[in-house]
Amino acid sequence: MAATIRIQAEPFDAAAATAALTEGRADIGAVVAFTGLCRDEGGRLAALELEHYPGMAEAEIGRIAAQAQTRWPLLGLTIIHRFGRIVPGEGIVLVLTASAHRQAAFEAASFLMDYLKTHAPFWKREHLKDGTTGAWVEAKEADDRAAEKWR
Amino acid sequence: MKLVYFAWVRERVGRTDEQVVLPEGIDTVADLVGWLKGRGEEYEYAFENEGVVRAALDHVHVKPEARIAGAQEIAFFPPMTGG
Mutate which of A123, A137, A138 to disrupt the B interface (most B C-beta within 10 Å)? Predict the structure, then answer.
């Protein structure tokens, strides 16, 4: 099963991506959809800017997807990760996992997000409502621990 | 060999990428970081906290002890914050 992986600046449509994943399939019994959204951090944030490493982003997400396919019996997998300027309320990342039964789809989606956050070469920077450029978002230890638990 | 930098490592170094010719004896990523730190205060600043900056060899994550012989492109960047 070939995973669909897209690194793009444009917004994505989670419903359309889910429909594309399941179209014409009678074997899929479960689809888990995770969408990561840009928050405004209590009204402070105007936008997030995501820098990425072109080439490596695709390669690393491909390796993470391949690991998920080895560990769980997936029937479909879609990962879309955006870069560039993203405003609060918009999606940043979409992970869709499809399997015959729900447990594999739930677990694979959780694994994929834990690994994307800690291994995919993307970096967030804040742009504030007052027009200034804020700080680079710092990596969280909790995210590292979340990824560690899958080892 | 091409070096590329991202996020605050890029800002501190003051460039997105550069070509370098390494002297003899620079065998590992850690050796390369040590050599870069001797090239100026911008590099010293970028790599001031040993162990924070991550590296990738030809688009694959590596540890400081990884050997760099044969690599086309080495990237340095902060811990990732995507997703």
Answer: A123
- Work out the minimum CA distance from B7 to partner chain A, whole angstroms: 6
Confidence of residue A19 (pLDDT cuts 50, 70, 90): very high
Residue A106 sits at φ, ψ, to 5 deg, of -60, -50
Domains and CATH numbers, chain A: 4-148 (3.90.1170.40)
Tell whether A37 lies on the interface with B, counting CB pairs under 8 A.
Answer: no
Name beta bridge partners: A147.
Answer: none
pTM of the model: 0.95
Strands A4-8 and A74-82: parallel
Chain A residues in contact with B4 by the CB 8 A cut-off are 53
CB distance A81 to B82 below 8 Å: yes
Look up the ipTM and state it.
0.96
Q: Tens digit of pLDDT for each residue in A89-105?
A: 999 999 999 999 999 99
CATH superfamily assigned to domain B2-77? Beta-grasp domain (3.10.20.30)
Residues of A in contact with B59 (CB under 8 A): 53, 55-56, 59-60
**Domain ranges (residues) in chain B:** 2-77
Question: Is the model more confident about A1 or about B65?
Answer: B65
The 3-state DSSP class for residue A44 equals coil
